[in-house]
Design a protein that fits this description.
The complex is a heterodimer of chains A (312) and B (395). Chain A is mainly alpha-helical and 312 residues long. Chain A is built from 15 helices and no strands. In chain A, 76% of the residues lie in helices and 0% in strands. In chain A, helix 4 runs antiparallel to helix 15, helix 6 packs across helix 12 and helix 9 packs parallel to helix 15. Chain B has 2 domains: 229 residues, Rossmann fold (3-Layer(aba) Sandwich), CATH 3.40.50; 145 residues, no CATH class. In chain B, the strands form 4 sheets. Chain B has a 6-stranded mixed β-sheet, with helices on both faces. Chain B has a 6-stranded antiparallel β-sheet with strand order 13-12-11-14-20-21. A 5-stranded antiparallel β-sheet of chain B has the order 15-19-16-17-18, with no helix packed on it. Chain B is elongated, with a radius of gyration of 25 Å. Classes of the chains: A mainly alpha (312), B alpha+beta (395).
Chain lengths: 312, 395
């Protein structure tokens, strides 16, 4: 034994040790010899962790939605799709979905329009106070939304100006959504618009546009990935928003309540029991539009985010 | 077609004055080239005419209108940019017709005009191409078509050939001249390439440090530069300069090795006045070729230093005082003289020799202001001005 440990031939001593080790030690030894194995293993562990934490709740939602009765198991006892139908039968779920999509679309258009103007100014013009203003916008985007709620609630319920009553209308949500999600769009668009060569804008202006015309005819079309990114991110953020969506309406479909309101209505949809399966089915349906949007637009989002990051 | 007039135009940025008191009148249908080194204010001057930048003070007139405060679109101009600036998201047709569509021309009219503009620049049949599918020369021609299709009153070109390769640049240069002949539009052209300036311009405007130095036809700028800057900038290789002063019987360089005899009174200079002598490399001759000069001066003893054979000619660097160091940093390297000789010359490096100057091509500049005093020191009794063929004895 002593002689073999002192043996200068490395291969021989490794052979010796391997025989003495259990499977874990053996694996570790191989990982040391080939670090790629360790990295791959870490990758799988991390992936598994994320898959379980993000996808398991969704899977459970599915189980709850399709399981008949209320005895839920990892593998559903049976498949009963009737809950999906009940979602639309018990309440006007389509109207809730329409409300959500409408609010998201209007906010996105509004945000893109204003953020485009701001992005043009911040990205293409030199003026005193540009940096402080940019920081101010950034700071506002970090404020907790809840801090705005009370004053906005008072304002929108007509307690500040009697003629201004936006509660239970799209305006009560579109306005706070816009101001909350605008900074991100401004940042994205500033980066993109700042990258368009001055010559192109000059050319457009000489050819006959105003500065604004050059923005819409040349700069925005050339920044399409950035505009798409800002648009999709805003749309998803609004669609997923809970706080103002929940508090700025009474929760009825006719009150412009978005899907949050619908899901809460579904909770009360059963007469004597909590209808988990219907709520779960409604949740799954609510997720679909965003899923579709992400699948369709993911290439643009990725290219938009990375190209903006790289070129800055 | 219109004339362009700049009156007392000043453009100041935070810390620099890009254009200082510019007065420039460009005649109807004229091809004027603004030329000067980087940062001389030529591009700013053009942007002022285009309306892309507003002058700090002064006025700009195009035709009979004052346009100082008008946006670019209302000035009746079009422009070709250095970086070509085709809209990458539009095909050739949309690029060329961009301005017409903005002005809401009839579809048929647009088609016809685009067709015509494309044929002027020989780009017919490529109207559905995208800019990134074309070569640099093709893109530049589309940019020119976009500029001419609106039939502007003034055509501005900001170094349009700078990004093209050398061969294409020469071709496009000829095409632009042909275009100017065809369209007869006023053209203002910015370049730092003096070969472009010399070959294309009706008149060259030489700018330096925001000031207009001279505006004259190319050959006048070449033969009668108004000051040291123009003399050094126009012509390649650059004119030789030697600082010196006026003596009782002519000129003597500071290092004492270069002298030209003439009567100071006739040249309009005073003895002891500090002057700079300028002579172009092609107006310096080996003494054996003295008869090639219109008006050979007395021989000057020099030593050849370095030879640069160019094929069609040889540049010979001469030292008037071979013992002194050559200060290459100094523009007025008084000791060094460049001579251009024919390629069959048998001059060798480090050879002692005599050279003569063509007196009719010698320039004297004021030593302090750099302004030209006299061009050619022959027959000076007629006063300052360009030399005549008539000989003048060395008195």
């Amino acid at each position: 034994m002593t002689t073999s440990q002192e043996d200068p031939t490395v291969a021989g001593s490794f052979d010796e040790r391997e025989l003495e080790r259990g499977p874990i030690q053996e694996w570790v030894n191989r990982a040391i010899e080939d670090p790629e194995r360790a990295y791959r293993a870490m990758f799988y562990v991390a992936m598994l962790f994320f898959m379980v934490t993000t996808l398991f709740p969704f899977y459970w939602l599915l189980v709850v939605a399709v399981t008949p009765g209320s005895s839920y198991a990892l593998v559903p006892a049976g498949v009963d799709l009737s809950a999906f139908g009940s979602v639309f039968e018990r309440i006007d779920f389509l109207r809730y979905m329409f409300n959500s999509l409408f609010l998201a679309t209007v906010t996105t258009v509004f945000v893109l329009l204003l953020a485009s103007l701001a992005g043009y100014v911040f990205g293409r013009l030199e003026f005193p106070g540009r940096q402080p203003l940019m920081l101010l916008i950034l700071a506002i985007s970090y404020f907790p939304p809840a801090a705005f709620f009370l004053p906005l609630y008072r304002l929108f319920t007509g307690n500040v100006f009697p003629w201004l009553e936006l509660y239970n209308t799209p305006g009560s949500m579109v306005l706070p959504f816009s101001s909350l999600f605008m900074p991100l769009s401004i940042f994205i668009l500033t980066t993109f618009y700042g990258q368009i060569p001055d010559g192109l804008e000059d050319a457009a202006r000489v050819e006959g546009t105003t500065r604004l015309g050059a923005l819409f005819r040349v700069i925005i079309p050339l920044s399409a990935p950035g505009v798409a990114t800002a648009g999709v991110l805003t749309f998803i953020a609004v669609y997923n928003e809970f706080f103002f969506s929940f508090l700025m309406t009474d929760g009825g479909a006719g009150d412009w309540a978005p899907i949050v309101g619908g899901l809460i209505q579904l909770q009360r949809a059963g007469q004597f029991e909590v209808t988990f399966s219907v709520m779960a089915a409604g949740s799954i349906i609510a997720v679909l539009p965003v899923t579709i949007l992400v699948v369709v637009a993911q290439e643009k989002i990725v290219s938009g985010l990375t190209s903006g990051a790289l070129k800055e | 077609m219109a004339r362009v007039q700049l009156d007392d135009v000043v453009k100041r940025y935070d810390d620099v004055t890009a254009v200082d008191n510019m007065n420039l009148e460009i005649r109807d249908g004229e091809f004027v080239v603004l030329v000067g080194p980087s940062g001389c204010g030529k591009s700013t001057t053009m942007e002022t005419v285009a309306g892309l930048t507003h002058p700090t003070s002064g006025t700009v007139n195009i035709g009979d209108r004052e346009v100082t405060r008008l946006p670019p679109k209302d000035r009746g101009i079009s422009m070709v940019f250095q970086n070509i600036a085709l809209f990458p998201h539009m095909d050739v047709y949309d690029n060329i017709s961009f301005g017409l569509r903005l002005r809401e021309y009839e579809k048929a009219e647009i088609d016809e005009r685009v067709e015509r503009a494309a044929s002027v620049v020989q780009m017919e049949g490529m109207l559905d191409r995208m800019p990134d599918a074309m070569s640099g020369g093709q893109r530049q021609r589309v940019a020119i078509a976009r500029a001419i299709v609106r039939e502007p009153e003034v055509f501005l070109m900001d170094e349009p050939l700078a990004n093209l390769d050398a061969k294409l640049r020469v071709t496009m240069r000829t095409e632009l001249q042909r275009l100017h002949k065809e369209l007869d539009t006023t053209i203002i052209y910015v370049t730092h390439n003096q070969a472009e300036a010399m070959t294309m311009a009706d008149r060259i405007a030489v700018l330096n440090a925001g000031h207009l130095q001279q505006i004259d036809p190319p050959l006048v700028c070449y033969n009668e530069p108004s000051n040291l800057f123009v003399a050094g900038f126009i012509g390649s290789p650059s004119m030789n300069f030697a600082r010196g002063e006026v003596t009782n019987d002519g000129y003597r360089s500071v290092n004492g090795h270069l002298g030209i005899e003439f009567d100071p009174m006739d040249a309009g200079v005073q003895p002891d006045q500090s002057v700079t002598l300028g002579v172009r490399p092609e107006d310096v001759y080996p003494v054996a070729d003295a008869e090639s000069a219109d008006e050979p001066s007395d021989p000057v003893a020099v030593t050849s230093d370095v030879l640069e054979p160019m094929g069609d000619e040889i540049f010979v660097y001469l030292l008037t005082n071979p013992d002194a160091d050559v200060d290459l940093e100094d523009q007025n390297a008084d000791n060094q003289l460049l001579m251009s000789v024919s390629p069959d010359s048998d001059i060798e490096a480090d050879e002692e020799m005599d050279v003569v100057f063509d007196r009719s091509k010698i320039h004297l500049f004021d030593g302090d202001s750099g302004d030209a005093i006299v061009h050619g020191i022959t027959n000076l009794s007629t006063g300052a001005g360009s030399g005549t063929a008539e000989a003048e004895g060395d008195d």
